[in-house]
Amino acid sequence: MTPLSRTQKAKLPAIALAAVSSVIFWSLKPIFISIIGDRGDYAEVYVVSGAIAVVSSIVASLIFWKKTKSLLKGKSSLLRAIGWSSLSGLFLSTWYYGYYRALYSASMTDATVIAFTWPLIATIAIRVFTPKTAEKLKPTQWLLILASFIGAAAIGISNIGVESSSGSSGEIIWAFVAALGSGLYLPFAFKATAEIEKCIDSKPFATFYAISIANAISLSVVLALLGATNQTLRFYAFDSQVIFVCALIGLGTYLVAEVTWTWAFQEYKSLTLSSLPYFSPAASVILLHLLFDEPVRPIAMIGLVLILFSNLTLHANQKTTNALGLTLIATVYVALASQILPLESGGAIPELTAALTGLFAILAGFILSRASARRTEEIDARTVLVRRLIALDSNPDKSLADQLLCQLLEYEFSESAQDKRRQLSKLYVLISSAESSSPQKVEEARDALATWMAIHDDRLSIGESVALWMTGLGSVIFVLLLRDASPFGTAGSVVFAAGAFLLIFTIRDYDRNNLHGFRNQLRRLQQGFQEIGQKSYVPAEVVESGLVTSKTFEDSEARYGRSELTHSTEPKFQKRKIFDTVYLGTAVLVILIILLLPISTLGIANGSHVESPRPGTEVAPSGNSQVSKETIIIADTGWPAAHVSSAVISSVLSANDISNVVEPFDQTTAAQEFLADEPLPLVHPDLWLQNQSFQFQEAVQNNDVKLSDAKYNATQGIYILDSAETKARVEGLESLRNPEIARLFDSDHDGLGEMWIGARGWSTATALEQWIGDNKLNTIEPESYSESIFKAKLEHFAQHDKPIIFYGYVPDYIHKKFELRLVNSLDQLTSQPAVDVHVARTPTVSRISPKAEEILKHVSFTVDDINEFIRLEHAGVSPNEIASYWIKEHPGTVAQWTDHRQTTGAAGK
Q1: Backbone angles phi, psi at 579, to 5 degrees
Q2: Model pTM greater than 0.70?
Q3: Could you give the C-alpha distances from 892 to 81, 708, 903, in angstroms and in order?
Q4: How far is CA 99 from the centre of its chain?
Q5: Does residue 622 surpass a pLDDT of 50?
Q6: Alpha helices, DSSP H, located in 562-666
Q7: Where are the domains of the chain?
Q8: Which InterPro entries match (predicted)?
Q9: Which of 79, 515, 620, 781 has the smallest number of CB atoms closer than 10 Å to its CB?
Q10: Helices 891-904 and 879-889 sit at what angle, rounded to 10 degrees?
């Protein structure tokens, strides 16, 4: 890393601000998507966000009309800039489109981690297309890039065969497309910026114009792609909040983040500060998990660590193998240990602590890499200084050169500031004494000394030291919160804390605290003496501090002294008791961690081992960190019927003194929990039995999943919101084989009728799409998008007297709100029969509370009950209010649930 110029130093605060703003907006993009939820699909969200960004750029260009006019006058440069920006925009379109599609169609966290391999792709692309903006890659750096791609590929491969609630596993490929596009746009943005800068002589404004043109091209390419694929944009569920969030995305990520990042990259080529945006995926994953309970699988965590480690190490201008090793230790240590550390309970606070500790570890690795780079720089500068000092002495015996080198060592290892000033003064006096022989060489020596001192005095800053201590202390807090309540768990926490402090002690002063590295370094600093044929020289302070021993140098090979530089004094070696004890003691503990932590995850006899609640493998509910093992958990799976029925069941159990809590559970996560070897005491309030997997239904038959005795029947089918023409002409789906009838449902004017078959990831949507394909119903275009968008579209079509055909189910409030006609039941078309809806529970419930077991066995709702639940919640009434009202209105039903146990003689708890 070359020393910074004054201009670069003046820009550092602005570069830092640019990097931080990029981190914030890139990190928040998945959060923005989660806020929008199912009110907008990936195409609509990007188009609106992109349009806002383009319009804002046009407005800004008009405000700064003088600069825009200067750009327009530079015809040849402008044309080249448009060409390069167009290429950049083409790749940006694949980044935006691919990333949004992956976020909506695959695991958000997996997609985020994979997409952020783009900096590694950019590293290669920049060196190919704009080699002047970066150095040539070294073999070790290629290994880092390979490691990052392996991490991403592992996540992608692990998605094979995994169906998410939002789509199929194959959609994860769009995350790789996004990474490729984002990695390739940067060098062409650089080229466009360089051309525009010829016209307006301002790199920030040149970057703004280059990115603005690229954004316009990107939006045009995506719109053309959507048009070519006949993808309709549906804004039916867009409201003011969605538009506001889209504005934040457009202004924040497409303009602010991209412009500031591209500018910072060009201004500060070492990337020490501009590497900060690589923390974006880590921040996104943490926020997604904490705020929206997004599952994060262990493979994603490991891939994230690999990608972050590779990015930070690669862009910290690393130069030594030792530095690579230190960075790897600092980055991976906490991340991997936290994967296997056992714990008593989960929840938001320990999860946040774990996440912050992992980030601190990565930050420590980043600092280590910078410190190692500075050390390498210092060694290079010192080599030049030694040669300049030797060149001052033209005498054959090189006595002056010997004095100069001894004095240099004395300055380097003086402890106090006063002593350092005194030793430096002596060094300048000795240099000046050679002025009579060659003034030019004296000036060169002084320059070399000034250059070396500027680097030598640049030790760990206060901020870096604080970051290192936060790493250690954060690790301690983490293990105290998450350690297992067992002897092995306690031992694991001690070992883990010791390892964190070992890191601090090792690099607190990276000149001396490395037990073995310092002795090697001291030997390396003797190079000048070897060139002039003198014995090695060790300052007395080094000897007395215990940093070396009598075995470091043979007696005949070294001189020990300080007061008279050319004379030896009898060395008095001291033992470094404190540091050696701490260092070696913690080193032993770090070795023990390899043995103790894996053992501690196995638990002990009669212990209460709980699996580590890493995101994605949680066995504890995500919403409440204080759930007792004697507490029954009622899953709120997210749809209106489940919202209210879970509240009703909770109220009834609470009235009977049964400890319970309602927790949000994704349907997929809830189903997996029911099939776990040691399931939680979990209740599913609205289980559609025939829509579950074969494995789940087999578990029901084996009594591994228990169902309520009563049930209500849900029906599924194809419904029509009629117009006068469709009511007369459409009797069933077979009627749609007539192209003229199918066109009655054509709202995008492509000649095909549209039919909503359900949201992505629904088993019914997959079944219907397969039926349409197998029956070659080529006049119909099956559409799959969120239910919120569909119901907003249904309301819009009803207001404008337009027909619409769609998959629907009962109970659902829309059947009371609109006049809908069933044209085909689902069991007529597919293997999906009418659905039995039960209240389900795990066998663990009966072991915790026989009373709860008997109540849940007899809980039942009717279709009318569920319809009323849905209607009231859709009208804005809270689930708890609806539950309270329903219980008051149905005392007989509730009494039947709770009193039935008395007539059967069931034991109460």
Answers
A1: -65, -45
A2: no
A3: 77, 18, 15
A4: 14
A5: no
A6: 577-600, 640-655
A7: 6-310, 632-712+835-904, 715-829
A8: ABC_Gly_betaine_transp_sub-bd, EamA_dom, EmrE-like
A9: 79
A10: 70
